[in-house]
Amino acid sequence: MQDDEKKEKGYVSMMEKVARMHATTAERERVKRAEEEAKRAEKEAKIIPLPIWPSHFRGVPNGVLRSALFGAIKRGPRSFQDNVIKSSLNGLIISHTGPQLDQADLDVWEQCLHFASIQGVENRLEFTAYSFLKAIGRATGGRNSEWLMSVFRRLAASVVQTQDEHSTYAGPLIHHLGRDEKTGRHIVQLNPNITRLYKPGWTQIDWDQRNKLRGHPLAQWLHGFYSTHAEPYPMKVETLHKLSGSEAKKTFHFREELRDALTKLNKEFGWSYEIDNADLLHLNRTPTLSQTRHLIRKATKDKKPNKPKR
Question: Is the pTM of this model over 0.85?
Answer without folding.
Answer: no
